[in-house]
Amino acid sequence: MAAKERQRLDRVLAHMGFGTRKMIKKLIKEKRVQVNGRPAEDPGLHVIPGRDYIEVNGEPLVYEEYIYLMLNKPQGVLSATEDRYAKVVVDLLPPRYRAFHPFPVGRLDKDAEGLLLLTNDGELAHRLLSPKKHVSKMYYAVVDGIVTETDVEAFRQGIILNDGYRTMPGELTILHSGTESEVELTIYEGKYHQVKRMFEAVSKRVIYLKRIAMGPLRLDELLRPGEYRELTEEEIIKLRELL
After folding, report:
1. Annotated catalytic residue within 42, 52, 83, 109
2. pLDDT tens per residue across span 139-159
3. Considering the entire predicted model, what is its pTM?
4. Has 109 been annotated as catalytic?
5. Are both 193 and 144 inside the same structural domain?
């Protein structure tokens, strides 16, 4: 989406990941930045991104106001933008994307992996996380304990958690039942550690958890843990249709 208001040239270039203000000033001094076919001379030059034609090192600048990234979050990484002690999901991105200041939409436990949407579109994130929207989240889990049809029915009715809260109905599908069971679970809210707490309420323990879908988004099977890609235009449209 192109921004329509005037902005400083150095701010636009910083937003697009071309480095610090000092680095951008050097680019301009070396006449490696052109605006509308002429070398830029002032970092404070006001431009309209998406309307003014900007080139850096001979390459046209395609301005984006928002970015939308699908990340396959690996285990051991926090769903946060910063932390004093632990690695966070934003650390997995190159400077080009970090320059947009993206943040995770919702959370995945530190020991969980799978689909995580990263964006700087605050309005979209707010609406996707709104309790009123009931956006679905689908998980694959390995559970210590035999999962039965009784559990399936209990999840369908809604589970009473350890704090007395009754969850919305969940859709539990048994893929394999044994001393370690494999299941898929779809829920429509996002309480703290909800999947783990739901299974604890029926005397089971989650030993592996992976989110495989969120609303219309399904985790790209080609993404290995720690890898990411930009959403397609079709995926972005489907997300906005939820709103």
Report:
1. 109
2. 999 999 999 999 999 999 999
3. 0.81
4. yes
5. yes
